[in-house]
Amino acid sequence: MNRRLMDFAPVALAGISFWALAPALADDIKLPPTMAVTAYDTGTAGFNIAVGVGKMMKDKYSTDVRVLPAGNDVARLAPLRAKRAVMSAMGSGAYFAQEGVFEFGAREWGPQALQLILSSVDCNAGAVGVAADAGVKEIKDLRGKRVGFVVGSPALNQNTLAYLAFAGLKQSDVKVVEFASYGAMWKGLVNNDADAAFGTTITGPAKEAETSPRGLIWPPLPASDKAGWERLKKVGSFFFPQKATCGAGITPDKPIELGNYPYPIFVSYASQPADQTYPVAKAMIVNFDAYKDSAPGAGGLAADRQTKNWAVPVHPGAVKALKEAGQWSDEQEAHNNGLFKRQEVLAAAWADYGKANPPADEKAFLEGWMKARAAALAKANMPNGFEE
Question: Tell me, what's the pLDDT at 246?
């Protein structure tokens, strides 16, 4: 898969240290006068929620927040890694980046020490939507159908593979159609270039697909199908069963059993000082009521709805804010410290691999890294998380 960065909106503030600027002050929360945040394409749930959070920061702290849309995970993280953005609204790609797998196993990336600020779990779900005219009722019916993949987006692609695994299907059982971005993939479904695409049920493109001539359905993942869920979690260990009650064609009266994980997941790098991430998390927690209805899914960012003991650690600055909100426990502290250690093990393994004269060929480089990664995690008595 092509690992080059997809296009993303240019960042006008390149090279500026946000907290070097004079801070805006409201109550005891200090935010910079200007912030940049990356997110999925315009119209997506992640983008819309980021805009809602940005409006709150503008109204409460006079902070101008610029939300930069990007079509895939590497493009979303590039401005964050270059310190041209304060945080990124990610999906499960945050986990893949931490683990240094798929596109993040490339020579120019490697394991990324990403840490959570806040994440959302609401009434929606993350699922494979299928054009209603494709003749699909269950996941198993996707065999031979055209399934959208996004170049440079391991999160979306792996999530799709996890859903296929629920029915015992693999990538070779479907016709993969590659697109340049999330938005382009869903446009492809509407335009009859693909039959299925992964997304959150509340995403704008899914609603557009539902009202298009093709229509849209969400093949269910019944929680009672234990064997199906066991197969799914071998490919997407971060998923959990959830009954979706909102989204395109979904209502509380017509819920659908699907899978889910936190989305969006607002992250920053471990290298970002806690006194910079703390006010961002604090502002989002204490002003929750100001943006909770700004976009579908925003209500899941409440401090008391944070997913506990997930796969990526919470940044110390956000931990401080959650403790002040009474939403942190000793169990979470222990789990979080274990994830910090995991990131250290992965970083050391990557550094050692780079010193071992790895092959120049991209495919061979990735294969060698995955073996080195597995060995390092086994030595540290930590789970691999990915099939060899």
Answer: 94
Cis peptide preceding 316, ω within 30 of 0: no
DSSP collapsed to 3 states, the chain: CCCCCCCECCCCCCCCCHHHCCCEEECCEEECCEEEEEECCCCCHHHHHHHHHHHHHHHHHCCEEEEEEECCHHHHHHHHHCCCCCEEEECCHHHHHHHCCHHHHCCCCCCCCEEEEEECCCCCCEEEEEEHHHCCCCHHHHCCCEEEEECCCHHHHHHHHHHHHHCCCCHHHCEEEEECCHHHHHHHHHCCCCCEEEEECCCHHHHHHHHCCCCEECCCCCCCCHHHHHHHHHHCCCCEEEEECCECCEECCECEEEEECCCCEEEEECCCCHHHHHHHHHHHHHCHHHHCCCCCCHHHHCHHHCCCCCCCCECHHHHHHHHHCCCCCHHHHHHHHHHHHHHHHHHHHHHHHHHCCCCCCHHHHHHHHHHHHHHHHHHCCCCCCCCC
d(CA 263, CA 386): 21
- Can you give the pLDDT at residue 354? 97
* pLDDT tens by residue, 257-273: 999 999 999 999 999 99
Round to whole Å and give the CA distance between 361 and 15.
Answer: 32
pLDDT, position 44: 87
Other beta carbons within 10 Å of 337: 11
CB contact at 8 A, 7 and 38: no
Task: Decide if 6 contacts 179 (C-beta within 8 A).
Answer: no
Predicted pLDDT of residue 229: 96
Radius of gyration of the chain (CA): 20
The parts of the chain modelled with pLDDT lower than 70 are 1-27, 387-388
Beta bridge partner(s), residue 244: 256
Tokens 């060698």 -> residue? 368
* 31, 56 contact by CB (below 8 A): no
For the chain, domains (ranges, CATH) are 18-121+263-341 (3.40.190.10), 126-260 (3.40.190.10)
Placement of tokens 């956000």 in the chain: 318
